[in-house]
C-alpha cells in the first residue's frame, strides 16, 4: 500500500484506492505519514516544502479581526443561552433578573472593554 502526498490534490493518496496519482505526488513512508497525521491532530497543518515533500507547520496565530470574530461568536452564544432570563414571564425574581441584565450588558461591552483579544476575561454568569 504505497502512500503519496500531492500538494495539488491537497493530501495523501493511496495508489490501491486512487487510480490517478498526480505528477507532483511524492512517496511517503507509513512512519512519516503517521507522524504527519499526529502533528495535524496537534494543531499543525500539512503542506509541501520546496521539493514537494509533505511537512507539518504550525498554523499561524489568528489576527485581531479573527479573534474579534471568535469573541463575538462566543458572546452571541452566551447571550442566546440566557435570553430566557429577560422575558416578562421568566420564573426569576426581579433581583435575579437584574443580575442577569448586568451580566448580559457586560457580555455586550466586551468588544469595547477587552484588553487582550487572545485571552478575554469573560464575566461570570449569575446563578439561576
Notes on the structure:
The chain is elongated. The termini are far apart. The mean pLDDT is 93. The protein is of the alpha+beta class and 128 residues long. The chain has helices at 30-41, 64-81, 94-113; strands at 3-6, 11-14, 26-28, 44-48, 54-58. Helix 2 (64-81) packs antiparallel against helix 3 (94-113). It is built from three helices and five strands, in the order βββαββαα. A three-stranded antiparallel sheet has the order 2-1-3. A hairpin with a 5-residue loop joins strand 4 (44-48) and strand 5.
Q: From N to C, what is the helix and strand string?
A: EEEHEEHH
Protein structure class: alpha+beta
- What is the β-strand count? 5
- The unreliable regions are none
Strand numbers in spatial order across the main sheet: 2-1-3
Topology, pairings included?
Layout: E1 3-6, E2 11-14, E3 26-28, H1 30-41, E4 44-48, E5 54-58, H2 64-81, H3 94-113
Antiparallel strand pairs: 1-2, 1-3, 4-5
Helix pairs in contact: 2-3
In short:
With 128 residues, the chain is α+β, with helices and mostly antiparallel strands. The chain is built from 3 helices and 5 strands, in the order βββαββαα.
Provide the descriptors you would attach to this structure in a database record.
128 residues; alpha+beta; three-stranded antiparallel sheet; two-stranded antiparallel ribbon; 3 helices; elongated
